[in-house]
Design brief:
By secondary structure, the protein is mainly alpha-helical. The chain is built from three helices and no strands. Helix content is 83%, strand content 0%. The mean pLDDT is 96.
Length: 93
């Protein structure tokens, strides 16, 4: 495996872990009616490659599952990242 592929995979693993943790933290804050992570920040991390972690966080923590922005937006990000991953893996890395 090339160095570029290792870096790419490390980035994806990291950003997806961050996304899942963000959904967990936001859910816990919601339960306590405390400060929340903005919806823009949650969607941004999904758009930056954390869509799989965001989706996992939505399902595992039952968070943002009734918001159309998330139920449609996160899966769309997942599809776009799948396409991007294939293209990058074959053409660039």
């Amino acid at each position: 495996m090339t160095f570029g592929r290792k870096v790419f995979l490390a980035y994806l693993i990291g950003v997806n872990l961050v996304a899942m943790v963000m959904y967990y933290v936001d859910k816990q804050k919601a339960k306590k009616h405390a400060w929340r992570i903005s919806e823009a920040a949650l969607m941004t991390v999904a758009g930056l490659g954390g869509a799989f972690g965001a989706y996992a966080g939505m399902q595992v923590f039952r968070h943002k599952t009734k918001h159309i922005r998330f139920t449609v937006g996160v899966p769309v990000c997942m599809v776009l990242w799948c396409v991007l991953m294939v293209v990058l893996w074959i053409k660039v890395l």
